[in-house]
Amino acid sequence: MRGIEYKHLERIEGPVVITKRSKGVGFGEVVAVYGRDQNRRLGRVVDLSEDWAAIQVFGSSTGLSADDSRVEFLDRPMELRVGTGLLGRVFDGLGRTIDGFGEIFSSDMRDINGLPINPYARVYPRDFIQTGISAIDGMNTLIRGQKLPIFSGNGLPHNRLAAQIVRQSKIRSADESFVVVFAAMGVKYDVARFFLDDFERTGVLANVVVFLSLADAPSIERLITPRCALTAAEYLAYEQNMHVLVVMTDMTNYCEALREVSSIRGEVPSRKGYPGYLYSDLASLYERAGKIQGSSGSITQIPILTMPNDDISHPIPDLSGYITEGQIVLDRELTQRGVYPPVAGLPSLSRLMKDGIGPGMTREDHKDVSSQLFAAYSRVKSVRNLASIIGEEELSALDKHYLVFGEHFEQDFLSQGEYEDRSIETTLDLGWKLLSLLPREELLRIKEELLHKYLDPIIAQSPQNQEDLDEEDPEKGRLRNAGNRGR
User: Fold this and answer.
1) Which H/E stretch holds residue 36?
2) Tens of pLDDT along 301-325?
3) Cα end-to-end distance, the chain, whole Å
4) Is the dihedral angle over the CA atoms 257, 263, 268, 271 positive or is it negative?
5) Residue 288: which of 468, 86, 145 has the closest Cα?
6) In this structure, are strands 90-92 and 79-82 parallel, antiparallel, or unpaired?
7) Could you tell me which residue ranges the ATP synthase A/B type C-terminal domain spans (predicted)?
8) Averaged pLDDT of the chain
9) Listed residue (36, 37, 43) closest to 14, CA to CA
10) Which of 157, 221, 353, 426 makes an SS bond possible with 141, Cβ 3.0 to 4.6 Å?
11) pLDDT of 217-251, one tens digit each?
């Protein structure tokens, strides 16, 4: 019989308490735990056996004793109150408002675990989302309904990049609503304050739903935060027909919390101590992105994670890469050279990019320009490795041209201001200016008609540029084009 309180706990292990199992209790159910001080602590069922239930307490278990405590099973899962008043509000990691304006006016409660999406009902992602960042829009394009994580490292500017994406992201259709759900897990107070201050100062907070779980919050709260955020996103996307971008940082903190809870429960660890179900747990979050039939809305995800020791083969980025459709990798060497955002050109990719660019979506030359920039930058990396062995002065004239291109590519294309919002047209035009630094016969990935349409006018405006290339004098080209970097 439900509703009966169970007195006495079997044992207490940190934030986990063990008690007798109530008949019909379910995994993930919300529980109220009362100590001798009669304070009400909420918790969640995290493990079940035939006779016992393990409960993770939201908060400290200080003051609880096995003899004087009691447990009440509340016969409901963890839920989030949703409604049209979500936008512009700030919640804690458990979905409780912390902005001082009280609860939102709605009686609609949703299970934070969501409902599985029928694969047959999914609609293939095809539409372009503009972030205003050339390294993403031009070469690793974000598509509506995609999961595109950012792989970063400790000390890299992923927080600044996340704030810039939230500020600048938009869709090109003026008659469709676009909103952002932002979730931060295990972040320090100053980082949380940075995000809130930035959103308020730039005026985007009215179009954002914020969930914050600070570093001093219990580990179990970090496991709840992304599920609350995705529940809010599902309501806005599938009930209100909005296009929702979900930015989640830092997924490494989420996985560390999962490992901690798994260890407390005594589970057999897998790679580097993480539970064996890390893959399926991450998939339960990432696969809540997408578009479904019957709704014009969509959910796009940008999970941000910091790779321990910059190791991309670590279980967290490794498994995330299997589930998601590409990745954007931040490079420490570029950061040290003053490039922001330090998006690594070659390890980054967007697997759905090809389906969301081109005529009617971005521009007809997008695919060719992106492919040529990738190929040229790959050649730059090879030439730099060669130069480190034989010296730059021993390189061929063509290789020196590629060195000049690489310098301009990093300083003018990849690098941009933190508050600089570039349209996709500006990004592609800048790509053409960079490609004009290379001999025409090197542009093998671009159709001839596109060369006539976009490259020839640039050369006509700056004929000396092509003459320098024909004379195989890249140093002169470097000097003459220093003022035409497309800033």
Assistant:
1) none
2) 999 999 999 999 999 999 999 999 9
3) 70
4) positive
5) 145
6) unpaired
7) 355-454
8) 88
9) 43
10) 353
11) 888 889 999 999 999 999 999 999 999 999 999 89
The span from the CA of 50 to the CA of 20, in Å, is: 9
- Tell me the DSSP string of 91-141: EETTS-B-SSS-S-S--EEEETT--PPPGGGEE----EEE-S-HHHHTTS-
> Domains along the chain?
5-76 (2.40.30.20), 80-355 (3.40.50.12240), 366-480 (1.10.1140)
User: What is the CB neighbour count within 10 angstroms for residue 169?
Assistant: 24
In 99-243, which residue ranges form alpha helices assigned H by DSSP?
A: 134-137, 158-168, 189-202, 219-234
Q: DSSP 3-state helix, strand, coil percentages of the chain (rounded to 5)?
A: 40, 25, 35
Query: What are residue 244's DSSP bridge partners?
Result: 179, 299
* Residue 332, burial from CB neighbour count under 10 angstroms (0-12, 13-18, 19+): middle
**One-letter amino acid for residue 261 of the chain:** V
CA distance 138 to 128: 11
DSSP one-letter string for 257-292? HHHHHHHHTTPPB-GGG-BTTHHHHHHHHHTT-BEE
- What is the structure's pLDDT at 345? 86
pLDDT of residue 254: 95
Question: At 487, is the pLDDT very low, low, confident or very high (cuts 50, 70, 90)?
Answer: very low
Q: What are phi and psi of 34, to 5 degrees?
A: -115, 130
| Cis check: omega of the bond before 341, within 30 degrees of 0 | yes
Inter-residue contact 343 to 414 (CB < 8 Å): yes
Q: What pLDDT shows up at residue 37? A: 75
29 forms bridges with which residues in the sheet?
77
Which two structure tokens, joined as six digits, stand for 367?
């695919």
Strands (E), 276-407: 291-292, 298-306, 326-329, 349-350
Number of other CB atoms surrounding residue 280 within 10 Å? 12
Residues 6+ apart with CB under 8 A from 210: 89, 90, 91, 182, 183, 184, 195, 196, 199
CA distances from 51 to 18, 23, 247, 318 (A): 10, 9, 40, 38
Mean pLDDT of 432-451: 93
| Amino acid at position 17, single letter | V
